Amino acid sequence: MSEEGRFTIELQHIEAYEFRVRFDWEDAAGVLMDEPPPLGGKQGPNASRMLAAAAANCLSASLLYCVSKHEVPPGAVQTIATCRLVRDERKRLRIGGLDVQIRVSDEMAQAARFARCAELFEDFCVVTASLREGIPVAVEVVDGAGQLLHRGE
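Structure (tokenized):
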């Protein structure tokens, strides 16, 4: 697969399990992420919730774009994502699945392009399609001088 682009986000540890996420878009607001108790204080969403939000947002935006292009009516969709957490064979918590329900307005459901878009939009959602195919993740841990301490798969 060819690489079409690249972006980088930065996480800065604040305290306990709180991290400030800074995006590569100058005008984009940062996000505070945290873990639920007993580790964190739920001061922001954790990674599992961000993943569910990313998939739900991507699917919603993909459907909106296909049906409406640049003339998106306000309130056209309401999306609910339910994340199922499960334990694997080693008792490690994992995301067992995501259920995403997109509720469209009557105006959107009656749009001329809706039926065709309903068949196509999932394939154009970068996040959901990538999750379904499995995303390779390379991990490195380095010290303050940049010396490699760990390389994972």
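The chain has a mean pLDDT of 93. The two ends are 19 Å apart (CA to CA).
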